[in-house]
Amino acid sequence: MTETQTFSIASIPGDGIGGEVVAAGLRVLDTVAKLSGGAVDFDVTEFPWSSEYYLENGHYIPEGGLDQLQKHDAIYFGAVGSSDVADHTSLWGLRLAITQPFDQWANIRPVTFLPGVESPLRKADDTDLDWIVVRENSEGEYAGMGGRNLSGRGPGNEVALQTSLHTEKGCERIIRFAFDLARTRTTKKVSCVTKSNAQQFGMVLWDEVFARVAKDYPEVETESVLVDAMSAKFVLHPEDLSVVVASNLHADILSDLGSALAGSLGLAASANLNPERRFPSMFEPVHGSAPDIAGQGVSNPIGAISSASLMLDQFGLTAEAEEVRQAVSNVTEAGILPRDLGGDSTTVEVTEAIVTQLEAIH
Ligand code: ATP
Ligand code: MG
Question: For a Cys staple, 171 with which of 92, 209, 255, 334, CB 3.0–4.6 Å?
């Protein structure tokens, strides 16, 4: 008998639709384990850290919580956000409280066009469109540096400073990561996005590091594009894109644009990676807690399920990851779509259809 490879997963459903979509992803992982015939297993531990938990306990992550997370091979995250807690409190209290100490400096967000899904972009020949946004995830505009009321002169005169931090090492590692990723793709190209015409320090450093690193990858085509021009390019010439690398803020915005172009925010997957693997990486859909539809059972589980497939990739289970992606694509092609994609299937119906496809193609 072959030995079972067991991967331990810390699941954090969080707020709103987080619980529904994480349950969907875990159902798919369960199926992957079952179909492996004992070759792989996933050992899942759930952590109840949410905004409700915060309001009761005064913190999102209890003392020793990060040590508990660290024992796992991966973290599977739903969403955080609640009308009862300020957005920056919940974001820094839970999501960034994991990505920062675990040095998950590379955030990848694939933009994938699925058959059967209407997109504002879609033309008859657009089905092959797919590109990946690589986001610097540890510094930049979200470094948390700055302060308020710096004028010291009271109401009406407040001055706030929000500083971007860009280090040469931080730029270099994410740019290299983007090139390494581009090398594995059919279209070997990296687009570097900055705003170096208007921001002459950090963004110029990005451009310089990009030009230097590019020399080590002669087989990869490159371009440098300003973020405003890149926004237009996403819409007008997406066929030119393969890997797009950008700072924390720019990539955050561009990846939302990408997911909307692909059909819905509910489709978008992401991975927060610690490429050195000193800490567990975290996999999560790009969307938030979606309080407007929470509890109705109609959320789109595809972003979360596709994030689980990125987790399988990181575990080295690439064949299984590919099968999950194929199952998702078969289901959308068959017109089994959740409400945000114009269909009327529930979260559970879409998930079960993906499970059935997975069983069929395995
Ligand atoms: P948060 O504060 O947690 O970021 P939000 O409301 O600002 O929440 P999202 O949760 O990302 O942002 O939701 C934005 C919009 O997209 C909402 O109208 C929501 O219903 C919709 N949406 C997001 N995710 C999904 C999903 N998985 N399925 C269906 N609709 C979704
Ligand atoms: Mg939001």
Answer: 209
* Percent of residues, the chain, with pLDDT higher than 70: 98
Q: Are strands 281-285 and 269-273 parallel, antiparallel or unpaired?
A: antiparallel
**Beta bridge pairs of residue 5:** 40
Distance CA 115, CA 360 (A): 18
Q: What is the pLDDT of residues 293-329, one digit of tens each?
A: 999 999 999 999 999 999 999 999 999 999 999 999 9
Ligand 1 proximity of 268 Cβ (cutoff 6 Å): no
Closest ligand (CA of 287): 1
- Atom from ligand 1 closest to the CA of residue 15: 3
Quote the pLDDT of residue 337.
97
If one residue of 22, 287, 346 were mutated to test the ligand 1 pocket, choosing by the most ligand atoms within 8 A of its CB, it would be: 287
224 DSSP 8-state letter:
E
- Report the separation in Å between the CA atom of 89 and the middle of ligand 1, taken as the mean of its atom positions: 18
Are 236 and 253 in contact, with CB atoms under 8 Å apart?
Answer: no
Residue with CA nearest ligand 1 atom 12: 288
Round the CA-based radius of gyration of the chain to a whole number and report it: 21
Ligand 1 proximity of 308 Cβ (cutoff 6 Å)? no
State the ipTM, two decimals.
0.93
- Name the closest-CA residue to atom 14, ligand 1: 290
Residue minimizing CA distance to atom 25 of ligand 1: 266
Residues 6+ apart with CB under 8 A from 57: none
- Report CA torsion sign: 259, 261, 266, 267: negative
Q: Strand 269-273 and strand 161-165: pairing?
A: unpaired
